[in-house]
Specification:
- The chain is α+β, with helices and mostly antiparallel strands and about 190 residues long.
- The chain has one domain (about 1-185).
- It has 5 helices and 8 strands.
- It has helices at about 1-20, 30-40, 40-45, 70-75, 170-185; strands at about 50, 60, 90-95, 105-110, 125-130, 135-140, 145-150, 155-160.
- The strands form 2 sheets. A 6-stranded antiparallel beta sheet has the order 3-4-8-7-6-5, sandwiched between helices. Strands 1-2 form a two-stranded antiparallel ribbon.
- Strand 5 and strand 6 form a beta hairpin.
- The longest helix is centred in the first third of the chain and has 17 residues, at about 1-20.
Length: about 190
């Protein structure tokens, strides 16, 4: 499952790079510096600082943005507590049992990689979505491989659900539900 989710993240990065972005994944220096003293050790642990639209800079931990129960509801079966897939990653995986590819990934992404106006390319469809944050869009590779990218102020994140047998419409609906929950917490 980790390799599939990492592949989705790589594809999202490639699409951003193709649109002319520098795609560094970092937030602007001013946002990082503003959160450095307030975020303290949490920023060092998560490595991501965001500036919510309604307050001062805070460090975001992808694993704290949804609960395991919310991830389980999206997947339709129990999941383990969220875990960072590798040290320094700005994402969190909520996985089902070891041999299943089903799970949820929440990633804190860089504002510089968020591009809802980019054009679709063969094999990758970009679909703008209204009613989610300040801007949002789906990256879809078809066959149950969708990622919802969301921006609220200068904070950007992605939600991806892998669930065997689910249609793109079902996955997108559940990704939207999780994104709305996250928006209420940042």
């Amino acid at each position: 499952m980790r390799s599939t989710l990492i592949l989705l993240a790589i594809v999202a990065g490639l699409v951003s790079a193709c649109s002319g972005s520098t795609a560094t994944g970092a937030l602007p220096a001013a946002a990082t510096q503003a959160g450095a003293t307030q975020a303290g050790a949490t920023q060092a642990a998560t490595g991501v600082t965001a500036v919510p639209t309604n307050g001062p800079a805070t460090a975001l931990d992808a694993c704290s943005l949804i609960t395991a129960d919310e991830a389980a509801a999206a997947v339709g079966q129990p999941v383990a507590a969220g875990a960072v897939p590798e040290p320094g990653a700005h994402s969190c995986l909520f996985a089902t049992r070891a041999l299943s590819a089903d799970g949820v990934e929440i990633s804190i992404t860089g504002l510089d990689t968020f591009n809802p106006t980019q054009k679709s390319i063969p094999g990758l469809t970009i679909t703008p979505v209204s009613g989610i944050g300040d801007a949002a869009y789906y990256l879809s590779m078809g066959a149950g491989s969708d990622v919802l990218e969301v921006r609220k102020g200068s904070t950007t994140f992605s939600v991806s659900i892998l669930r065997k047998g689910a249609s793109d419409v079902q996955l997108q609906g559940d990704e939207k539900t999780l994104a709305l929950a996250i928006l209420g917490r940042i």
